[in-house]
Each structure stands twice: as structure tokens, then as C-alpha cells.
Amino acid sequence: MFDWLIIGAGFAGSVLADRLARVRNERVLIVDRRNHIGGNAYDRFDDAGVLMHQYGPHIFHTNAQSIVDYLAQFTEWRPYEHRVLAHVDDALLPIPINRTTVNRLYGLSLDSDEAVEAFFNERAETPAEIRTSEDVVVGRVGRDLYEKFFRGYTRKQWGLDPSQLDKSVTARVPVRTNTDDRYFNDTFQCMPKLGYTRMFEKMLDHPNIKVMLQTDFADVRRGISYKRMIFTGPIDEYFDHRFGKLPYRSLRFEHKTLDMPQFQPVAVVNYPQNEPFTRITEYKHLTGQEHAKTSITYEHPSADGDPYYPIPKPENAELFKRYEKLAQATPNVWFVGRLATYRYYNMDQVVGQALSTFQKIDAALGTGTKRARAIMQAS
Question: What is the per-residue DSSP string for 321-377?
């Protein structure tokens, strides 16, 4: 008999397994259908000995000191500020768009935030209502920059034109008038010093935690004795797709190792125009590893495969709400994480959601924390 069955060994499931085992002193079985822990943040050494990310680049960034401190129990940090270039009109230009992008692309010499803002304002088209991703970008920087940097990338990534997607998609990408070329502005920007997998290994290293890999939810749903469940998989899958499948976009990763020390000037280069892929990642920029060879990944968006990105359209949100009502009426099951809540969260947001869920569980169930403290005091 386990106190908890946790479905999914990514951030949401692993954080909750750690808290339930260490703080509440309860027995946890965590299962995952893949052959590894860490979810999409899983990293590994490839055949050449280069540390790479199996499911594309994962860069940790947050403004929450509490989340950094929590994860620091399981890893040391390597400072890293992420920079991305876009391959546009045969040039490599900073993305998000900033003053340098505008000057290089148009052969200008704008020298102030005000001058760049005026440049954007002259070209911006004001829609009657900002509803779609196209509205957001065209209303901020105009049609030409939208076509060069956003439309093609979005079409490849989502399989839909930006005019068909919710405004939240492109609203995630800022536009700057200064020369700041960092992709993120968060206070904390860093990478686990020894990699994500090592961090997850320490998080799950506790006698109260048992891990089962290559195990499907359906295989253990009725064959394991447990009191309560944490579910981090697709919420529609839990309910056997009762109302139909929630739509997702997937990715296909093409990994290559090259016999050269460096392939590109930054970790990620976006390809928003006619190429069949969306971006190329070179991992040594992220990890700081020194190696005679380098490993890169081409990302090809796909309609089929593992679910990665919920597709932000109103009808999909309505379908999720139907499943959410079922989830709220399901006793002793907590739905946590990207797939279970049908939202695109950054890693720090998933950690924050898991820690918040644990606090609610601990408050609702009560006795576990007192029991754990008594054990610690006795020892």
C-alpha cells in the first residue's frame, strides 16, 4: 500500500514526490511511461560524450527566490543568460526584436529608445480589437517585421496562421527599444551545474520514494494499492477522452554530433522563414562543457507525437473546462502540471504550482507534517 501514486516523473510529479516523502513522511510510487525521469527536461550524454537535452533546450529562469532556493537543495547553479538569434534575410539578428535588430535589418543608426519607439509607431497597424497573435505583433511593430520574424515561425510551430491563434502566443515574446539582447529579463537565469537529470535523481533519492519507469498509467491504475493520486499527464487521457481529445502540437527532434568545437555563435538560432525546421540548438553554450565535438538539434514541429504545447484557441479552452469540471469532482486526485491543466507553463511556474499544491494538500490532510517533525526530533 502506497500513500500516493504519482503519474509522471517530470517537474510537477517529482517536486510533489519529494515533498510528500520528506515533509509528510509518506510512501510514494512515481511512475512514468518513458525510460527516464525528468520529463521533457531530461538531459543525457550522447555517444560522443556531449551533454545534450533530449527534448530541446530547457533554460531555467525565474523571479522567485523561493523556487531557486528549493531547487538548490538538489543542484548547484551555473550562471547563464540566454541569447537567441534569428536567421532572417541571410543575416543573424537578435530576437526578441530590439534596437540592434532594427538597425541591422534596415541599415539604420537609431540611437535611442525614443527613436526606435517612433520607428515602431510609424509602422504599427491598430486593429479594432486585439484578439489574435497577428493583432498583437502588427499592432506593435507593423506588417514587415511581423512577416519576417513571426508569421512563418508561428505557422511552422502551430500549424496555424497567427490570425487563427489566441493573442497569448506572441504576447509571450517581448519587443524592445534598447539594445538588451537577452532572451529573458528574469532576476535568476541559470542552469543546473551537473544537468537536470542529476538534479531529478537527488530530488527522488529518498527511501519513501519508489520509481517505476516504462510503466503506463493504465497498467497501474487498478493494479496498485494507493490512497491518493497526483496526476500530471494529459487530463483528457485520465478521463478516457470522454469529450474527445484535447489538441496539442508536438515536436520531432533531429539530433546530430559534429566534428567541430562550435557550430553557431549562440545556443539557439531561430529560422522563421522558409526552412522546414523552427530552430537549431547547440548545447555546449548552455552547459559550459568543453569538448572537441559539439551536438546540435533541429526542431521540427508536428501534429503527431508526444503532447508538448496546448493549442490556444477558444474552442480548446472550452473543451478543457469540461474536463476540469470532472477533475474538480474527482475525490483524492490532484491534477498538476502543463498537461493536467492544459496550460503552457515555464519550468519555474510548474515548480511553483507543485509547491503550492503540496501546501494545500498538507493543510487539508493535516497530520503528516506533525508526524514527520516528531520522527526528525526523535532521531
Answer: HHHHHHHHTSTTEEE-SHHHHT----HHHHHHHHHHHHHHHHHHH-HHHHHHHHHHH
Q: Nearest 5°: phi and psi at 2? A: -100, 150
Looking at the fold, whether 213 and 163 belong to one and the same domain comes out as no
Determine the Cα–Cα distance for residues 137 and 175; give it in Å rounded to an integer: 9
Identify whether 46 is part of a domain: no
Q: Is residue 152 a part of any domain in this protein?
A: yes
Are 151 and 89 in a shared domain? Answer: yes
Amino acid at site 250: S
Among 71, 95, 219, which Cα is nearest to 149's?
Answer: 95
113: in domain: yes
Q: Are 88 and 274 in contact (CB under 8 A)?
A: no
- Provide the domain limits for residue 114: 84-171
Q: pLDDT per residue over 124-179, tens digit each? A: 998 888 889 999 999 999 999 999 999 999 999 999 999 998 888 887 778 999 99
Instruction: Report the candidate in 162, 163, 166, 152 with the shortest Cα–Cα distance to residue 95.
Output: 152
Cell numbers linked to 326: 470532472
pTM above 0.90, yes or no: yes
Q: Is the same domain home to 94 and 138?
A: yes
Residues 302-326, buried b or exposed e (16+ Cβ, 10 A)? eeeeebbbbbbbeebbebbeebbee
Assess whether 32 and 137 both reside in one domain. Answer: no
